[in-house]
Write a structure and sequence with these properties.
The complex is a heterodimer of chains A (298) and B (280). Chain A is of the alpha/beta class. Chain A has 11 helices and 12 strands. Helices cover 39% and strands 22% of the residues of chain A. In chain A, the strands form 3 sheets. A 6-stranded mixed beta sheet of chain A has the order 4-5-6-3-7-8, sandwiched between helices. A 4-stranded antiparallel beta sheet of chain A has the order 10-11-9-12, covered by helices on one side. Chain A has a two-stranded antiparallel ribbon with strand order 1-2. In chain B, helix 2 packs parallel to helix 8. Classes of the chains: A alpha/beta (298), B mainly alpha (280).
């Protein structure tokens, strides 16, 4: 799929299951483009996209019936108050007028907008606007939610609260696509993750598998002379990937992929006259997976 | 922000028909227009000056029946009813106010995405905005002339109503035409700027400028009369009420003028909304 001769998405297949799927990628990776394509807001110059067997920009009306979208940028009408805004877009989504009023109150209660709902949106803080954006995407109770950077601009408390909200919505049986560049937030609430770059899916799957599919990663600390440490590091690098390494005084700390036996590693350290101080299997964070995916180890 | 204890609840209501969704947008345009002090001021002043005064005179003056002459040609202390400059000026003012925020609001707030992430397309969006503006304009351009026509018929001295009903039908057509004719132009300007003020003043000033330019050059060449939007409105009423165009006006040029006032603005608006809607 290309725009202005730039390939935005390339042979990209995304399977969304119930629960929360985190969509990760560096700036310009195509996260927002992907979401807009999925609901038919953008159509490519070349290429094909299929969602539920349909072309989004040709069957956008049907797809938008079942999708709620929270955009990344400001999109609220400043002159309206939150209750009018949310109920208005409930009606535009096809809800009965009687339903929209109580439903708007219900979703605003849920996202934590209380009496402020009667104030003009233009007077809201960024955090409150994010909550109203979430509320408008929920008003018609869509089975699929696409949230583009939902915690953007929020303070730490607000971020935690927003993540709890999303987590709770995810627990109600909805399918949520959660785009973010804040890795620990995705790690905290996502059931599945997709890492994309330059329009390609680099890594995808349940978050437990992605974090744990390389149990052979170990954290190693060895003591010895600097020359021996450097020689040992080179020896390891010839055998496998080093994700991270740091020499402080006479200690070398490393995070390495080690698919061989521990005996071989210990023997290698002994051959270099080094003393092994730490040898532990490493539980990786999503941040490490993310950087490993892009850098392939350092 | 306080700690929440409210759980997410599902909604299981039925969905409305497709056109009902657009009615929400139409009602919002009407509501926001009639809650704008400026528009209400123009509306009330216009009703008093343009409709109430001539209406009272037309109804109170003894008349055998409702005729097209009474509505567009009869001189009422120096000016006519529907073809007077004051009717056109208030139509310009009202259309400027009503259309000024239609698209500029969504440009300013980047809220196209909230509309277009819902089951409506650009065509439906524009139809709803246009219909909302048309509804408001019809309260000034359609409803009062029809009411006055009915009052004239109710107070006529002749027992024959056939001709009056025919004129009443023409009045409905003329009212619909006047209500909708300048909306595409106003919406186009609203789609070109984020500022409501710029759109409103821009619409009124350009229509006024065209009036002055058309009036000035028409002294040298009659076709320039068609540049004047007041004249276009006036001639359209003449055509609708069966008097035809003045002899010095070329009918082809008149049709081209109608086309230029409506079709290019619609195309420009669609292009603007399409570009802005995609770039969200």
């Amino acid at each position: 799929m290309t725009y202005d001769e730039i390939t935005a998405l390339d042979s990209f297949t995304l399977s969304l299951d119930q629960g929360i799927t985190g969509l990760l990628g560096p700036n310009g990776a195509g996260k927002s483009t992907l979401v807009k394509v999925l609901i038919g807001l953008k159509s490519p110059v070349h290429g094909e996209v299929s969602v539920l067997g349909m072309v989004p920009w040709k069957h956008s009306i049907f797809l938008r019936e079942i999708v709620g979208y929270m955009p990344e940028h400001d999109c609220l009408i400043d002159e309206m108050n939150a209750i009018s805004f949310v109920s208005y877009f409930g009606r535009v989504s096809g809800m009965e007028k009687e339903d929209t009023i109580w439903r708007a109150h219900e979703v605003l209660d849920f996202v934590g907008i209380s009496e402020e709902r009667y104030r003009k949106i233009g007077t809201y803080s960024t955090g409150m606007k994010q909550r109203v954006k979430l509320a408008q995407s929920l008003i018609h109770d869509p089975p699929i939610l696409m949230l583009d950077e939902p915690t953007e601009g929020m303070d730490p408390d607000g971020r935690v609260d927003m993540l709890n909200l999303i987590s709770e919505i995810g627990g109600s049986g909805k399918t949520i696509l959660f785009c973010s560049h804040v890795l620990h937030e995705v790690e905290r609430i996502a059931d599945n993750i997709v890492i994309i770059d330059e329009g390609k899916s680099l890594k995808t799957g349940p978050i437990k598998d992605v974090l744990g599919d390389e149990d052979e990663t170990i954290e190693l600390k060895v003591l010895g002379d600097e020359d021996d440490l450097l020689s040992f590091k080179k020896g390891i690098k010839d055998l496998t990937d080093i994700y991270r390494s740091k020499i402080i005084a006479d200690e070398l700390c490393m995070l390495v992929r080690w698919e061989r036996t521990s005996r071989e590693l210990l023997q290698l350290a002994k051959d270099h006259n080094l003393q092994v101080r730490t040898y532990t299997p490493h539980s990786r964070t999503l941040e490490e997976v993310f950087f490993m995916t892009f850098k392939g180890g350092t | 922000m306080p700690m929440r204890s409210i759980k997410y609840k599902e909604w299981s209501g039925g969905k409305t028909r497709y056109l009902t969704r657009l009615s929400a947008m139409i009602i919002r345009v009407i509501y926001s227009s009639f809650t704008s002090k400026g528009i209400v001021a123009i509306f009330v002043t216009g009703i008093v000056l343009v409709h109430a005064f001539p209406g009272v005179v037309l109804v109170m003056t003894p008349h055998p029946r409702l005729s097209a002459w009474m509505l567009i040609r009869e001189s009422l202390f120096g000016w006519t009813y529907l073809t007077s400059g004051i009717f056109a000026i208030f139509t310009f003012l009202l259309v400027s106010g009503v259309t000024s925020n239609l698209i500029s609001e969504d440009l300013r707030n980047r809220s196209f995405v909230v509309y277009f992430s819902r089951p409506i397309g650009i065509t439906e969006y524009l139809i709803a905005k246009f219909s909302g503006a048309f509804s408001v304009m019809s309260f000034f351009c359609l409803l009062p002339p029809v009411v006055i026509s009915l009052m004239i018929m109710a107070t006529q001295t002749s027992p024959y109503y056939g001709e009056g009903l025919r004129v009443l039908l023409m009045t409905v057509v003329a009212g619909i035409f006047a209500s909708m004719f300048f909306i595409p132009y106003g919406i186009m300007l609203s789609s070109l700027t984020k500022r409501r003020l710029y759109a409103g003043i821009g619409t009124f000033m350009t229509l006024s400028s065209l009036t002055i330019v058309g009036e000035f050059f028409s002294t040298f060449s009659p076709p320039w009369k068609l540049v004047n939007p007041m004249n276009v409105l006036h001639y359209s009423f003449e055509v609708i009420y069966g008097y035809g165009l003045p002899l010095d006006i070329d009918s082809r040029l008149y049709v081209i003028t109608l086309f230029l006032y409506t079709v290019p603005p619609v195309i420009i608006t669609i292009v603007r909304v399409n570009n802005e809607g995609e770039g969200v």
